[in-house]
UniProtKB/TrEMBL annotation:
Domain (CMP/dCMP-type deaminase): residue spans on this chain: 1-114
The entry's keywords: Metal-binding, Zinc
InterPro entries assigned to the protein according to its UniProt record, in alphabetical order: APOBEC/CMP_deaminase_Zn-bd (IPR016192), CMP_dCMP_dom (IPR002125), Cytidine_deaminase-like (IPR016193)
Name assigned to this protein: Nucleoside deaminase
Organism: Pseudomonas taiwanensis
Length: 152
């Protein structure tokens, strides 16, 4: 069963990342039946807070395929994807994501993102990071400008 092979590979990547000083997260991205990206959490070596394994796998896959859309792809992740990674999956057309360890298993080790999911489930005005509209007076036409530029 290839699914099990993909997940075992994601877990092996996660374990290797521990040895490399990183967090216990690995991901394998499968597109049209082929592994197109293998990635690990690289926050420890990039200082990039968005360098989660799933994000890195999406970046690698898009670069390797030369396209920003990954419609129909599947991701095998060692841990439950965080809201950022899940949103990225939605934005590029990932069809399904699998994870081995859930947030409850990660909680005792500070590896759960359940609190972020809980925040994002609240109305924007009630989140601890308020999202508020703010457009300076006189500002207009940004999207129309883009539409005109992209149709020329
Ligand atoms: Zn993530």
């Amino acid at each position: 069963m290839p699914e099990e092979r993909y997940m075992r590979e994601a877990l092996e990547l996660a374990r290797a990342n521990i040895q490399a000083g990183g967090r216990p997260f690995g991901a394998v991205l499968v597109y049209q039946g082929k592994v197109v990206a293998r990635a690990v959490n690289e926050i420890h070596c990039t200082q990039d807070p968005t360098a989660h394994a799933e994000m890195q796998a999406i970046r690698q896959a898009a670069k390797a395929l030369g396209q920003a859309r990954l419609d129909g792809a599947q991701i095998y992740a060692s841990g439950h994807p965080c809201p950022m990674c899940l949103a990225a999956m939605h934005l590029c057309g990932i069809e399904r994501a699998w994870f081995a360890y859930d947030n409850d298993e990660g909680e005792p080790y500070g590896l759960s993102t359940a609190a972020v999911y809980a925040q994002m489930a609240r109305p924007p005005q009630q989140q601890c990071l308020p999202l508020r509209p703010f457009k300076p007076s006189g500002e207009a036409g940004l999207y129309q400008q883009w539409k005109q530029a992209s149709t020329q």
